[in-house]
Amino acid sequence: MRKVIFAVFALFTLMGKAQQTPATAGNPFFGEYSTVHGTVPFDLVSNKYYEEAIDRGMALQNEEIAAIVNQRSVPDFENTIVALERTGADLNRVLNVFYPLLSALSDDEMMEISLRVSAKLSAHSTGISLNEGLWNRIKQVYENREKFNLDVEDAMLLQRTYDSFARSGANLQGEQRDTFRNLSAKLSDLTTKFGQNVLKELNTYEIWLTADDLAGLPESSVESASDAAKAKGRDGEYLFTLDQPVYSAFMKFSSRPDLREKFYRLYNGRNTKGEYSNMEIMSEIADTRRLIAELFGHKNFAEYALERTMAETPANVNKLLEQLTEAYKPAQQREFAEIEKFASELEGKPVKLHPWDYSYYSNKLREAKYNYDEEELRPYFELNNVIDGVFGLATKLYGLNFVPNSDIQVYHPDVKAFDVNDENGEFIGVIYTDFFPRESKRPGAWMTSFREEYVGEDGVKVHPHVTIVMNFTKPTSSKPALLTPYEVETFLHEFGHALHGLLADTKYASLSGTNVYRDFVELPSQFNENYLTQKDFLDGFAKHYQTGEPIPQNLVDKIVNSSQFGAGYACLRQLGFGLTDMAWHTATSKIEDPVALERDAVKEVSMFEDVDGCLFSPQFSHIFSGGYAAGYYSYKWAEVLDADAFAMFLENGLFDRETANKFRNNVLSRGGTEHPMTLYKRFRGQEPTIDALLERDGIKQSKKMPELPQPVPSKKD
User: What global pTM score does this model have?
Assistant: First the structure.
């Protein structure tokens, strides 16, 4: 049944077979898709089909589970573990459309459906995990595993199946089982509500400004705001929202401190009060997770969650966060002293840096030091050229080719679909791109799959269908979509995740692609980001959208020379998120004062005085509704890995195919088939240190990364 038993709370990854009935024969989820590459027939997808397909999929998977449990054959790897892995195809078919679209193309009806089905899906998942007959068969196979001729991937599937059931309550008895069922259902409902509140409140913000309020803003921001106002029938005014590209540009360029403060307070005060408040919900989420962890004998949720990660324990996480704080805090303090001195000279009076001032003055200082202006760079990053450059990176490294395929249906006119082929013309998979903000899309950027790679029962490889979703600067009435270097970096990041899914070469979907330890999953994405500062990469695609002139050397130098600018601030900001996450999930009782918890968690890395009414936890979707609970540290953990990995390319050549093939064959293609440290050392030839990260960021200290736990056999629960 694939990932259902490996991530009991990630309900959108469940998987089954079905028969149509006359009343529902039009439901596109009731059979395999008769489309190009078996892609989703989005023109047939409608909200009215989701719930009945989910109910049917759960019922069919229950029948498949019953067939495994009730068979007379002695339990073995094929008739129990592999059979379980293959259950749920019909349920997976609908959920692997519903949940991606719930994030990218949602409406009120979909949100209502999500609320209705979340409890049912949680109960379904928990029911499988607590099926005693199924658990007894799994245990019997596990305890006799030496008798089976298992290869490395088979052994990992067995280990993860056993561990996932044990960690999902299979060993619980009596009232504990009922408690687990109830807590799981409650958690599913709470996390769904949290995510919906974030999206709903974000969509309520309309900030109307006049021409007198636009001082400092670039032409692109002004034109976008004018177009947005005209679309609302208010010509001559300017409409701003809190969508990420709009907010970021305003905070960076507006010379009006009063308006920057207004935007900051609105953005960072979201979901703290009113109809869409998450204040009580996040406390309930954290406490429900704590109670689940206690059922399994753990003091807190972080201790429970980190067992199946590279870090393994909260102590190892905290050790890394402390080391990075020690290394980067002096750099951040030097940065702030320089910015305040510069701002004071610029304004002709003493300036104390507030959080709504950082982007503005740091951008001014960056421009003064390096003559760096992101707006000056936008014309060289026209979206179609960037697509060619980012896709071209995969061509140079791995021999992949991307061919637009208009026969593949898409879920929105902004979305494009591409066939992905290898250098021999063999089909690899499909990638969808979705770049622009809209009211139906949640903020941020992400990669997901409509179908994962695996080998079917007939021995034929099933090719992956992945999608990358972002919120980039939109085209205006006079210009195409022109990206900032930061947006190009975001594209590179999500494309790295996509390659992890596309290049998967495994037998089992639950071990395929991005189905790896959480603190390993960001390695391929963050690895890709390194290319943004490489001249040889930029020269391949960055050209002026009007003249076709290649990006001048002096502009490339500006990107490269300024790449270390603000490294201290950026690191401490990320550490603040990681420390807050750990504070929520190492609590041993319910958090009654979220404000005090967040303030205390970040005190060692805090860079500004507290702002009343502003808190990031209520919008912290990553940890409260996005699967990163007790795992946000993994971005920094993976950053250590990506810097160390990229150092090998710097040594051997940016596009060295031999090095790239080692990365592909030992990291990208192997998914979760082996312990990530085993895979990494096979690629790199050694364990990672933080030396490469410190060198890349211009930090003078050189410290070793905390010694990473070596892969060891899991103990029986």
Answer: 0.83
